[in-house]
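pls design
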């Protein structure tokens, strides 16, 4: 009988502790979500976000040319190689230019 009572008390204690831990973790999660929401709406983050968007747009324009999607990594490398080959054919050709394949 004592074993049964000890088991029941342990089970109740662990169940209660689990419920409290779940509630505490839920509160922490909610607080973190709220903080991230507040941070995302802050003027500092908005300014940073704008600068990053401008940088990415500028980079895509310079690397991708007229292709607004920017292309895959392979496409960007190929177009860069083509542009480089065209630039070097307008000027003096160097021996390593002959190895360039597009």
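designed seq:
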């Amino acid at each position: 009988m004592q074993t049964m009572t000890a088991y029941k008390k342990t089970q109740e204690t662990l169940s209660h502790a689990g419920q409290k831990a779940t509630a505490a973790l839920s509160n922490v999660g909610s607080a973190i979500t709220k903080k991230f929401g507040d941070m995302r709406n802050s003027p500092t983050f908005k300014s940073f976000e704008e600068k990053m968007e401008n940088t990415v747009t500028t980079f895509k324009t310079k690397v991708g040319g007229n292709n607004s999607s920017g292309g895959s990594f392979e496409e960007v490398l190929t177009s860069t190689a083509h542009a480089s080959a065209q630039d070097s054919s307008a000027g003096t050709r160097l021996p390593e230019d002959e190895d360039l394949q597009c």
